[in-house]
Amino acid sequence: MKPKAFISYSWSSESYREMIRNWADRLLADGIEIVLDQYDLKEGQDKYAFMEKMVTDSSFTHVLVICDKAYAEKADSRKAGVGTESQIISQEVYNKVDQSKFIPIWSELSEAGEPYLPTFMKSRIGINFSTPELVNENWEQLIRLLFGKPLYQKPVVGNAPAYILEEQVMPSNPAVAKFASLKQALIQGKKGVAIYRDDFISACFKYADSLRIRTPPDLDNLGEQILKDYGKLIQIRDLITDWILLEASSTENSQFEDQLSATLEKLIELRSRPAELNSWNEVWFDALRLFVYETFLYIVAALLKVSAFKTLHEILTSNYLKPESERHNPDNRFIGIEVFWASSEAIALTPPNGGRYLSPTAELMKRQATRADLPFNSVIEAELMICLICALKERSWWFPQTLFYARYEAFPFFVRATQQKHFKKLSQITGIETADELRNRAKQGFERMRIDQWRDFSFHASVSFWSALNMDKLDTIR
Asked: What is the C-alpha separation between 398 and 404, in angstroms, rounded?
């Protein structure tokens, strides 16, 4: 129903009547059908019958009661036209307590800052129009109310979360409280920050470790179980990311870098089989492997965001100690960042229109890219950086699955590296001083990784990994 409103007010002064008329004109311009005595009460009409019809007529969706000191006094003392009108209004208000047809508009406040309201309006929530500034500030609120389109609409009730419906109850996550303590310690400059940091990291991995499969799962429902477990780990991904953003943005801290390296080795351990398992299938651990892969991308994206380039160089070019369960060869106990890569064909994801996703893993990460400060494009850019670093290293490899979702937009970090001052940041990450050397090394690495044979990426035909990295233009502007 199109909004239709009657304006009830006191003839306090000619200037006041003019203000009310201006408000009526503005409401009419905004699509509200307005009835105002100045326009609609003609000579010869019965003014009391007019008032009663305006208040009781069901075709009126609202009555705007403009409340100033004069209106309140006349209404309460039943004086003049306002007194008669307010008797009609008050009867409607008292008889229909739960309705919202009558809206108090505060046009005047007392010295104490309280609105002047007649008794029958005192319990009603109103809109403050007591100054021209407040009229402009609250005008949209009134229009939305009249049209029944509030700024904030209550969402529909959804389904209960999966963890509520599960018979097995997961323990609460103490890592949330541990992170709050660490954050407070860092902000307040407390001594012993390392203790708070260790407690936080330990709590994160204790929770994640509780989701590692240690008994044979139901293979018929394994895909669903992987999705459930992976979903439970989003909170840990975000807590670790929050820690990186918080601490990496402060003054360079060797303790932080050491802890980050140790954290990455703990992630590697999480993605491997528990030591006590003697018989297993690799697919059992897909949930943790996907979590580790995604968390590594977010760590890189977070370090890029806070310009922690020295730390990025350290973690991207380092080798990491393998978990004890995988140190079979004493001459091969370390591995590069390629260990963080993962993929799963077991997860139960199907496109709405049938067929299959080119990378179910990338699709899942896209769905779970819930952070406003690190949107999915930042994650894609982080993986492009990782792919470049792997190309620069011997015997390293990385297939950037999230790039299935890269469109035609450029990646800001690499575009900015066209300028020399920004190329220096890329140089700090890669450890390569000149753009020419970087281009030569990258070309050799891409040939070794056979990137030219990769298919199905959504890049425009004229776009390649080479151009996505802005390779030809790096350090071309001084």
From this structure: 14
Distance between CA 294 and CA 369 in Å, rounded? 10
CA–CA distance, 478 with 476 (Å, rounded to integer) = 7
Does residue 87 carry a pLDDT above 90?
A: no
Residue 307 has a pLDDT of: 94
CATH classification code of 4-147: 3.40.50.10140
pLDDT score of 455 = 63
Q: How far is CA 291 from CA 228, 229, 236, 298, in A?
A: 12, 9, 9, 10
pLDDT at residue number 207: 92
Both tokens of residue 475? 């350090």
Q: Where are the domains of the chain?
A: 4-147, 162-166+175-473
Residue with the larger pLDDT of the pair 44 and 420: 420
Least confidently predicted of 180-194, 247-261, 330-344 = 247-261
Stretch 328-332: mean pLDDT: 75
Tokens matching residue 147: 């049209």
Distance, first Cα to last Cα, the chain: 63
| pTM over 0.70, yes/no | no
Q: Rg of the chain over CA atoms, in angstroms? A: 33
Has residue 218 got a pLDDT over 90? no
- Both tokens of 223, joined, read 């895909």
The pLDDT assigned to 123 comes to 78
Average pLDDT score over residue span 258-283: 85
